[in-house]
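Reproducibility note. Readers wishing to regenerate the assembly model reported in the main text can use the exact inputs given here. Chain order matters: entities are listed in the order in which they were concatenated for prediction.
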Amino acid sequence: MMARQLFLILFAAPLAATILSTALRHPRVAEYATVTAAIIDLVVSVPLVLQTLQGTIIFWHSYIRIDALGTWVILCISIVYALSSIYAVGYMRLLDEEERLPLFYALFSGFAFTMLAACVMNNVGVFWIAIELTTLISTFLVGFEREAESTEAAWKYIVVVSGGITLALLGTVLFYWGGSFVLGPRYAMTWAALHTSAPHVYQPLLLISFLLVLVGYGTKAGLAPMHTWLPDAHSESPAPVSAMLSGALLNASMLGIARFLGVVSGASVNRFAHTAMVVFGIFSFVLAALFIVRQTGVKRLMAYSSVEHIGVQALGLGFGGVLGVAGTFYHMLNHSMNKSLMFFGAGNAMRAYGTKEISGIRHVLKTFPVSGTLWLVGAVGIAGAPPFALFLSEFTILRAGIAGPYRWAAMLFVVFLIVVFIGFLAHFRAMYFDEIPDQQAPQVRRLPWIVWRTLPMWLAFLPILVLGLWWPHGLWDVFLKISLQMTGGGQ
Amino acid sequence: MFLAHLNSLQASIFSSLAIVSLLLTFVMLGSHWLRNYVYAFAVQSWLIAALSAAVGYFAGYPELYVIAVLTALFRGLVLPYLLMRIVDRLHVKREIHAVLQPSSSLVIGALLVMFAFVIANHMSPQTTSAAHVVVLALTIMLSMKLIGFLMLSVRDEAVSQILGLLVLENGIFLGSQILVPGMPLLIEIVILFDLLIVVACFGMLVRFLVVHAGTTSSRQLNRLVG
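Running the prediction on these inputs yields the following structure tokens for the assembly.
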């Protein structure tokens, strides 16, 4: 059983990093343990994806499920975990919090562990618990800097998200109740069981259950109008944590939504479920576009961009079909890397200029010739311009939309893509090329440990460029498998 | 499905336990005093434990006794104790700037229960026997959910917000005991422990709030906008 060994390594690595960081309480050991664990996870996750092409693997009394959908998200999470733990080495040392660094890395790896765990859960209830645990751990990462703002953000985060996630629990219980009419009063609460029972459940009940789950996990994924915690939490946490929240955590919650969409795919409410996805998706997209245009904080800009891209993914799932699903999961990968790059750049700029405001950051290229260029090019990429990967995935989702019954949403999508492009890049034009108002030249700090912070930016940038020019054919096999799984349920 | 063979005695035991729990939610809604919230929550948890035991006895799920004991222990004793400690340490005895007066929030709470009833009536499959207990359980589940969200939105104090979240969860627990008593044991136990961690996290955060933000009222948390 090759997959089982890979699975064990995948979880042992971050766990070991957490234990080492807490036990030895040595900042350097904690740093290197985390980086090592993250790289091991990245190396392990690729063959894990390949394994699932042979078929889904279920073990441990069917509590663990390793399938194409889950391993794809594991791959995205591992990439962000690796990139941001390398960046964290160079970034967290700037905060002058040496004695609390081991705690930070312990929480950081624990956070990665819970997110990875959510991806392999075959039991719907345990999946909910895993998602809840990600909130609890990441709250302390959000509030790590212990300023008034970050404490406020942490509080809002935990209250809004825990409140929202209870709706998902209610939805899960109702799904189980609906299934008990078909499968008898007690049965294993697996995705496959819910999928088999869904077509025979009283449909209004199924619909309400789905909507509750969508709103619940949608809160965690940052779909508008449940996104209110997101800009605060993403902007106030340390930059590597922002990257993890945006690039990894949103994917894990999106996985829950995708799985539930798969559960109802055989039932007659399927069409309505897709419409709900499209409506939430387009609403998030439009709202985020408007906030991007008028944004003044640099990390809040990135946070709203996350709301936008989660909206795009919801749209892709809502449009459905092989194209829609392929576009969504390609977008998930590309967004994970590109958004990490953006948060790393924002972290550099914030530390060097000592401000969170866009208006305080000027002439970035003079301060950061190399990483500044990467950040600028990344901004062009995240705004959806070719030749970068996000262009390809957004274009695929658009094709799915034009071909399907939601052409109105596809049209709106195009219009607001242009708004986002102009709005997002206008801020970057200001930061790079605007003159400094009056004579106050910003106080620029020279920052040490520059290699640790530039290397992950390169590592994020190169795949975005490559994947934008060339869509590897092997990826289609993965996406076909995922799409088949979402419509065919458990197998 | 044990609801199919429910006799009138069992039906009335379940219904009255559920209804009294809902009334306790109104006690929380109608009071200013943080202590009262905690007491009402503790009593509600004991009622839910009693309900678990009753369902376990009548429907023949012996593992529900374990759930009942754990519920009484954790939600009925440990959580209220932890909450009381937070209340004592904060020196905040009551909601000072409630957005809504208790009387008006009671009226809104009543409207929410009616709304929950309409939804519950629509979503319960009409073919089931003992439909009235099913509709009642769904109504109470949804209305505790809605009232919990009402408490979250009109109350400012950190402790009230934690209690609002706990009421949200109590509603689900109560409903699920009646609707799906066969739900796997493991999940319910893990959710109970999970709650304990939730409250511990909240306790730590409240301390951070006092030290770093200088307040426990969410009304003062207004630095981050836009």
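We highlight two features of this model. Chain A has one domain: 2-488. The two ends of chain A are 20 Å apart (CA to CA).
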